[in-house]
Design goal:
The chain is an alpha+beta fold. Helices cover about 40% and strands about 15% of the residues. The chain has 5 helices and 7 strands; from the N terminus they run E-H-E-E-E-E-H-H-E-E-H-H. The strands form 3 sheets. The protein has a 3-stranded antiparallel sheet, with no helix packed on it. Strands 1-5 form a two-stranded parallel ribbon. The chain has a two-stranded antiparallel ribbon with strand order 6-7.
């Protein structure tokens, strides 16, 4: 795994954007992302400016009907598996999601029912792989221990105030 990877992802237009007649100004092909301004016929300024950027991954997730649509599973295979492999080898690993409000960070990281994001998938693989090798009675004990640990952290009240 390289030290840093940069991935960008385009989400579908939301209801507010669709109601306003907005259209996407982003195009993606392979690792290349192109932003083209003034694509709308409603814009008075006729000057069109395009800027190209190249990333480690450019994910088109704006329309699931598109042939180059990238789903949650593919994002996990590209980004999450390396994080898991590094963690299993004893290295610290991190996924950092950055973007403006409503840009799709929570969807990518947490997902929605039926389309789990990176965090649930990483946790599932991480803990499931450990439990598979344990006898059933130990799995229950280990799971109970994890739940008790997280509850104690969640319910902890600092009495030194």
């Amino acid at each position: 795994m390289s030290s840093v990877r940069v991935a960008v992802r385009v989400r579908p237009l939301n209801k507010r954007e669709l109601d306003a007649g907005s259209q996407s100004i982003i195009e993606m092909q392979g690792r290349k992302t192109t932003i083209t301004t003034n694509k709308s016929a409603a814009v008075v300024d006729t000057k069109t400016v395009s800027k190209e950027f190249t990333y480690d991954y450019s994910y088109w997730s704006a329309d699931s009907r598109d042939s180059h649509y990238v789903n949650q599973e593919q994002v996990f295979f590209d980004l999450g598996e390396d994080v898991l492999n590094s963690a299993f080898q004893g290295y610290n690993a991190c996924i950092f999601a950055y973007g403006q409000t409503s840009s799709g960070k929570s969807y990518t990281m947490m997902g929605v029912p039926g389309a789990s994001g990176l965090i649930p998938r990483i946790c599932q693989v991480r803990f499931f792989s450990d439990f598979v090798e344990l006898p059933p009675e130990t799995r229950v004990s280990a799971y109970t221990g994890l739940v008790n640990y997280w509850l104690s952290l969640w319910l902890y009240v600092d009495t030194e105030e």
